[in-house]
Amino acid sequence: MLIILLLFASLRTLQGSSISSPLPNGLPFSTLDFRDTQLEHLGQRSVNDIVISCFATIFACTWSAIHPNIPAPTDCWWTRFKRQVTTMVCALLAPEVVTAWALRQRLAAKEIMEEYNETVLKDSIDIANIKGRPPGSHLNTLLGLFKDAPLLPSSQQGPRWTLAHGFFIQMGGFMLSEGGRPIHTLNWKWKAGKDVQLLHNIQNEIIDPPRLTEEDIQDRSKGDAIAKTFILLQTTWFIVQCIARWLQHLPVTELEVVTLGFALLNGITYALWWHKPQNVGRPVFLELKTQKSPLTIAESDPIPTEIHPSKGSWLRQRMRRALDEQPLWALPIMIPFTSLVALLRPLFKLIEIADIPNVDSSHLRVPMFYTACESELEDTSQWAMMVIGVLFGSVHLIPSWFLDFSSPLEMWLWRSAAIDITAGPLLVVVGLLAHATICIKEWHRIIAISLAAPILICIVLYPLSRIILLFLSLISLRSLPAEALQTVEWTTFIPHL
């Protein structure tokens, strides 16, 4: 359905009708404005064409481009759908943070792949890669298109891991089981207890190394390379159109500027998640060895279903804490503030402001925005998130001096919101790094609070700024200038006689 929608949007963008306006009587051709004369040879588009093209691109960047983690085997359809909608809203309000999430998973996947091959397969010989080419190299990927896969993995300990394996385990792709009944999800080794570490269980011969190949993982994915390539072509085509309009001095609408930011980050996100399987519905069960089983689960034991011990919703816990700890006069302030923080909690999880629960023996899935990054990699991802955030904000800020706003109020609202989303990531990352380097002493707490205050204000105002930009981009369609409905004359870019 998405491919049909994108194809329809592309065709609607390409089609147009010529504008024919007769010359005024008695007016010589030389007195006409050259730009008006040039517009007569250009096609015309409608507001519907702009809306369909932009909405199709935004939908592709916020729904189809997301690669969620694997749900628990006990999750119902509504629970899975609710998480995907939550992720889409986060991608709509803070797409650069989703790109940073993809970067953290990509960095961790590379570390997991290398450590598994060096630790678990250190004594094995992989015949498929005996010539020294790394298993995840682009050359091997290209050669694999023209070579049949072996019937069995070449190593007795299972196949060499690739980036797909590194992504798969971070998604909660491996589940420890006994007699076909799930016990808990398995992680690599970071942010996890020893009993849920895949490496620990393999080294202690509690389970066998997984025999899952990269082809098996990609077979579980709901998104293939053709669908990803088509979406990338659609977003790339949209970017090319915007650049071509600027080169021909044709105005770009505010909605197209907003969509341009999504399209730019979508390319980066897809590149980072290219090897990550998409929309996998079930994990792979790894059975405990009977003779090495450290525990026995009775038939009457209930299967855990929660990501963490059930103590009520996160909002309910914060409300109870506010009622217990705060004086009565502070409740009119604390209750609305706590509700606002609860609404923004998914964004807090993405930037790791909130405490993301680690994977332990009660988990049947990993957290929604989970990554297995080490602390060194998290520092790198924070700097990368700052760069990505500034880049995304600049896409909205720089064109604001070339947009045709309907009123000065809309212009200043747009620029203020664009400045906030541009400077916000810079302020948050610098504040977090500065706060981490401060020794927590009595007199340093004042500095810590002074750093935390602008960070919190920035986080609270950030979604508001994003909503303002989206709202202004939609209401700007009510009064577009005539030139905004002109299409690009592509023949000016093609050499011809």
TrEMBL record:
Keywords: Membrane, Signal, Transmembrane, Transmembrane helix. It comes from the Eukaryota. The keyword Membrane applies. Residues 1-16 form the signal peptide. The chain crosses the membrane at residues 328-348, 383-402, 414-434, 446-475. This is Uncharacterized protein. It comes from Pholiota conissans.
